[in-house]
Write a structure and sequence with these properties.
By secondary structure, this protein is α/β, with parallel strands linked by helices. The protein has twelve helices and ten strands. Strands 1, 2, 3, 4, 5, 6, 7, 8, 9 and 10 form a ten-stranded mixed β-sheet that branches.
Length: about 350
């Protein structure tokens, strides 16, 4: 019997290294599973910081606050919205990317996140791998609009005039590399036009310039344009989504005149990479619940003219990757210098 025990001890001492490694891996995975299960029962135990990267009172801030207030009710902890504005949302994204992956720091992520990934040679964070997507919340189109007294009554007329008068048609945007700029560049490329881009430093200046007739058209969200459209100061020629906007149901889709064209922006929520799966799943359930609320859906329509649409974390990641690839192609085709 003593001899058998000695054999067993020697066998254990001389276990092949790959079996030892497998045993250790299984033990680590078991420990992580136990940790996630425990975290799912105790999280959240304190307030959650919801970081958004845009000016107070803007669309991002308004959406973050309305959604955050409802998330707090479901999570049982305050959701504190904090603005870290600047660089088109990149400052906020960098802060969240470098935060602890414990579920207590979230990021309002927008379509501009994908645009930055396409436009910048190097960012202080990795646009996809440094984040754990949770869910999208709202998708919204842009509107191609011209002045109320403009010669253009349709997209077809705008394209025909631009082709007959190369270099004489201009469009404005909120700045070089903005989604509005790239939406115009995609239109220019797909319609094979020679038109001039006039960038401004954000704000409503492009809208004012188009209404005054100093610019031919712009691509812009409904937030600054809808009041002017309703006041008959802007003429909407098309929306940039493939289907008509519920806010402007009488306005055709740009794809009707330019097959294959589609530009929409979006907002969602992400956490730092390596956030425990149990926390990701809990947050996804809560965001999905909030986005399905009739009052939230109505406010998305009124604030950004958008359609409420939640997603799985996996679908949001795929959408982000697809958007980065799309805008990278546009930047390269337009020969926009990468910053």
């Amino acid at each position: 019997m003593m001899q058998n025990r000695l054999v067993n001890v020697r066998a254990a001492r001389w276990m092949p290294w790959w079996k030892c490694l497998r045993l250790v891996s299984l033990m680590v995975l078991a420990g992580l599973g136990w940790h996630d299960a425990l975290l799912a029962q105790t999280w959240p135990a304190r307030p959650i910081n919801f970081i958004q990267g845009f000016a107070a009172g803007g669309n991002g801030d308004v959406v973050a606050r309305m959604v955050g207030a409802e998330l707090a009710k479901g999570l049982g902890q305050p959701v504190l919205v904090e603005a870290r504005s600047g660089a088109g949302g990149n400052i906020a994204a960098n802060f969240v990317a470098k935060s602890a992956p414990d579920g207590y720091t979230l990021l309002l992520i927008t379509g501009g996140h994908a645009v930055s990934a396409a436009l910048y040679r190097q960012l202080p964070y990795e646009p996809v791998e440094d984040f754990a997507p949770l869910s999208t919340m709202v998708h919204f189109a842009f509107v191609l609009a011209t002045g109320a007294d403009s010669r253009y009554k349709s997209v077809g007329e705008l394209i025909a005039y631009a082709r007959s008068n190369p270099g004489k048609v201009s469009f404005g945007s909120a700045g070089i590399g903005s989604t509005q700029h790239l939406a115009g560049e995609l239109f220019k490329s797909m319609a094979a036009l020679d038109i001039e881009h006039i960038p401004f430093r954000g704000g409503t200046t492009p809208v004012q310039e188009v209404m005054a007739g100093r610019l031919d058209f712009l691509m812009e969200t409904l937030t600054p344009t809808l009041p002017q459209i309703r006041a008959n100061r802007l003429r909407p020629l098309a929306v940039t989504s493939r289907s008509r906007s519920p806010v402007l149901p009488e306005v055709a889709s740009l794809e009707d005149a330019l097959p294959g064209y589609e530009v929409t922006s979006w907002m969602g929520i992400a956490a730092p990479a390596r956030t425990p799966r149990a926390v990701v799943e809990r947050l996804n359930r809560e965001i999905t619940r909030v986005v399905a609320m009739p009052e939230i859906r109505e406010r998305f329509l009124s604030v950004v003219g958008g359609e409420a649409r939640a997603s799985t974390p996996e679908a949001m990641r795929e959408h982000l990757q697809s958007e980065i690839a799309k805008w990278t192609r546009v930047v390269e085709a337009a020969r926009i210098p990468r910053q």
